[in-house]
Amino acid sequence: MPPIFATEPGGRHFEKVFDVALSGGRKVDPRTGKAPPVGNTINRTNLTYANTIGAPSLQVRWSDPEFDPATLAAYYVRVLEIPTPRWSSYDAHRLGREPLVKQSFSIQERAFTSPIWYDAQMPVRY
């Protein structure tokens, strides 16, 4: 569940990803700064998958370690689903055909929250 931090200091736009919550006891590699993949339980023979990895929900409290009150910022959360067979793979399996080679056999759905905007110049409204 990585919040993505976007800001425009001096009019320049950039983004930074913080891996904040990982399922299954996974940890960010301190050497690379990257999170390991969640894994893959797809059985390509009978086109099933086990929903035994990942987590149904994650909760975390996070503070931006690079927060600058003078800088515009937008924060949002991105979540990744475990890999599942793509529908064209299901169709090919039911028709007794091989899936199309040019397509990936599986997909990993993503979801994003609406951003939370921070601007020190804007008055607080409740």
Automatic annotation (TrEMBL):
Full protein name: DUF3604 domain-containing protein
Superkingdom classification of source: Bacteria
One of the Pfam families matching this protein, by short name: DUF3604
InterPro entries documented for this protein: DUF3604
